[in-house]
Amino acid sequence: MPSQKRKVDADADGPAAASSKRAKKEPEEKRLARFKASCPKNISERVDRVMTQRFFMIERKREDGELREEFKVLGSTGNVYTVLIDNVPSCNCPDAMKGNHCKHILFIFLKVLSVPLHSHTYYQKALLSTELETIFANAREAPNALTNGRIKAAYAKVTGRDKEAKELEDKAAEAEKNKKRIPEEGDDCPICYEEIHGTDIKTLTFCEECGNGLHQECFRQWAMKTKPATCVFCRAEWKQASAAVAGSSTAGAVVGEDGYLNLASVAGLSPVRDTTSYYDGPRRGEAYHGSWGAGSYRRRSNYYY
Predict the structure, then answer these.
(1) Between 252 and 179, where is the model more confident?
(2) Residue 52 is assigned to a structural domain of this protein
(3) Nearest 5°: phi and psi at 180?
(4) How confident is residue 13, by pLDDT bands cut at 50, 70 and 90?
(5) How many CB atoms lie within 10 A of CB 37?
(6) Each residue of 139-164: pLDDT tens digit?
(7) 233 and 182 share a domain?
(8) C-alpha distance from residue 134 to each of 59, 71, 109, 128, 138 (Å)
């Protein structure tokens, strides 16, 4: 009898029990920072900076399928910062290095990746993989992925099919030649991501190949970055490049005392930070010293870079 009981017990740990174990759900991914139910005031203030100041996205890198993308952002004073969007969004600017959700991260979320203001994701310190999947899936296409003919040609070239690549390039160029595409409602400049619909045509420059346009000022910066200068949209060589970059000089690129590359003079920006619209009142944990009207707040700098 004891031997039968041992057999029954052994059967209880058999296929049925193993199947039950396999049926257990995979553990849910945990957010690497506390979830914020609403946008904090300090982040809302930085959103205001994004909406009122001008930024430039000058480079982006993402491997196919990866839930991370790296961006180079030209800040409001000309400094170039690196923003990384992944499970824990980050930037190497002074504001972010203090642990803040800086305006450069917000610029990428709101203007480059087109995350809507009603979303809860852009102000989170950490994101779930499912949230990143949604953000990247709904983001506008990168400028170099807008012309299918050019993509096919580029792929053919990197896979060693040079003859086919040349045929595709010629076909795409012929189809797009001499087409000036006037910006329509909802069209944005691919460099600064400001809407260009209704903008004075005289302030825009157009690609002779694909016909797409962008701000002359923005293209001047793009042309300084890429040698030879190419179209932001289709990557064709920009035939008006010499005129577009006239008067520009790489001598304007300097490394400041803070260690950041600064392109303020090249971009036509002031390297002096405009803080006139920044909030300068007390914050949580800051004490007021002195009488009203003559006192001061003991606080650290509230500048957002």
Answers:
(1) 179
(2) yes
(3) -95, 110
(4) low
(5) 6
(6) 876 654 444 465 456 646 655 768 87
(7) yes
(8) 22, 18, 12, 10, 6
What sign for the dihedral angle of Cα 136, 142, 144, 146?
positive
Q: What is the pTM of this model?
A: 0.58
Q: What is the pLDDT of residue 272?
A: 60
In-domain check, residue 148: yes
Flag whether pLDDT at 18 surpasses 80.
no
The answer to whether the peptide bond before residue 190 is cis (omega within 30 degrees of 0) is no
Helix ranges restricted to H, the chain: 2-12, 15-22, 41-52, 94-97, 103-107, 129-138, 148-158, 162-176, 216-225, 241-244, 264-267
Residue 81 contacts residue 75 (beta carbons within 8 Å)? yes
Domain range for 232: 144-250
The verdict on residue 77 lying in a domain is yes
H or E element at residue 34: none
127 belongs to a structural domain: yes
The domain boundary, picked from 220, 250, 280, lies at 250
CA 253 to the chain's CA centroid: 22
For 198-238, the pLDDT digits (tens) are 888 889 998 877 888 999 999 988 888 777 788 888 777 77
Helices vs strands, H then E, count in the chain: 11, 10
**200 shares its domain with 156:** yes
How many angstroms separate the CA atoms of 234 and 174, rounded?
Answer: 13
Span 187-208, average pLDDT: 89
Task: Show the CA angle centred on residue 6, arms to residues 5 and 11, nearest 5°.
Answer: 95
Q: How many CB atoms lie within 10 A of CB 134?
A: 15
